[in-house]
Amino acid sequence: MIPNIETQSIAAIKTFQETKLQELLVYLQNHSPYYRELFLKENINIQEIKTLEDLQRLPITTKTDIQLNNESFFCVPMTEIIDYATTSGTLGDPVTFGLTDKDLDRLAYNEMISFQCAGIQKGDLVQLMTTIDRRFMAGLAYFLGLRKLGAGVIRVGAGIPQLQWDSILKYNPKYLIGVPSFLLKLIEYAEQNNIDYKNSSIKGVVCIGEALRTSDLEPSILAKRISEKWDVKLFSTYASTEMSAAFTECEYQVGGHHHPELIITEILDDNNQVVADGELGELTITNLGIEGIPLLRFKTGDLVRKHSNPCECGRNTYRIGPVEGRKQQMIKYKGTTLYPPAMQDVLSHFEEIKMHLIEIETNDIGTDEINIRIHSEDESIEFLSKIKDYFRAKLRVTPNIVFDDPKELQKIIFNPLSRKTITFIDKR
Questions:
Q1: In angstroms, what CA-CA distances link 113 with 241, 246, 351?
Q2: pLDDT at 49 over 80
Q3: HSE-up of 393 (CA within 13 Å, CB side)?
Q4: Could you tell me where the DSSP H helices lie in 32-62?
Q5: Which has the closest alpha carbon to 88: 300, 323, 297?
Q6: Torsion angle defined by CA atoms of residues 322, 173, 108 and 147, in that order, rounded to the nearest 10 degrees
Q7: I want to staple 263 with a disulfide (CB 3.0 to 4.6 A). Which of 73, 202, 217, 245 is the partner?
Q8: Is the model's pTM score more than 0.90?
Q9: For residues 217-248, b (16+ Cβ closer than 10 Å) or e, as one string?
């Protein structure tokens, strides 16, 4: 079922969002200590902000702003906060987000319509391969959304291929939710243990945390490697704690659909100007319908492209493409600008590479140095040369690449204290 607003005309969706924007500004003025002070300091009359274009007249919000003024962003008394979630901050300490009962209902609605977008229906059984604890919003959101949809949930958690397969073979779920690179681990385990994974109950996977598409929305090397082995439908979804909303692919897989009832987006350049559709820029979001900590023009740090051409699914909403990099993870290496996703895509090209860890540090002359530690079936000099040649062909530069002990890499990449697999470490 597609929400009615998502099938309206582009003009009707814009008018709807402008009404919601005006309601948000009134709410922030009345309830947010941070934004009330900001409006006063910047001499902003919220009555003059009437259109989406008028957003350009408002200041942006950064993660550092939230970290330095965390309590001032809360719009309700702490007694109304039901759930506490945290996300990484720019200054070391995590940033706290509090959700009210209404916010949790909104979160459930967001995930419900996102899963519907990917084809999950009432009565389907879904295996959740991500953590729901450690103040992690995503796992809780997935559970709430599936519950609201009327789907069954098997909460297995992250990692441990044997446990995942035991659950799949016992309960026969139709869908999985997990990190796409972990699917290669599932396939490898199945092949080593004579599990007929190609005839399992799994029909689709909602993939989180890693890109399945290239900048022009073609399958990434990682997606191709999975699909060559396992005939399951792969759906990309992108979200963050700050957004409390998700962009999930429909069956046509041309980017994650925007839900206009939940979020306003802008794609901005370095000067905070809106870029043309299809151009790379920083995703900047404004929440709609949040009580606890609504954000106004929050710069996510994620570099994406907006796709506005019509989608065959019947929705008139634009789509957001894959995250092609993060502002704070930009690397200048031998005159070339690089982002971790581009290097990870190159490494995914080689089936021999079973694990990889990208580490960035500042060398003794003050420039960025890239070290890539890999575990591979082939540790020959010839294979190492092959990897370096492919880096040069795709990215024009060759980082330092070394073979490493798989047990050491395993400890770092699949750290049980981490909510996600760790394949990139910035030591700068």
A1: 17, 9, 35
A2: yes
A3: 10
A4: 33-41
A5: 300
A6: 180
A7: 245
A8: no
A9: beebbbbebbeebbebbbbbbbbbbbbbbbbb
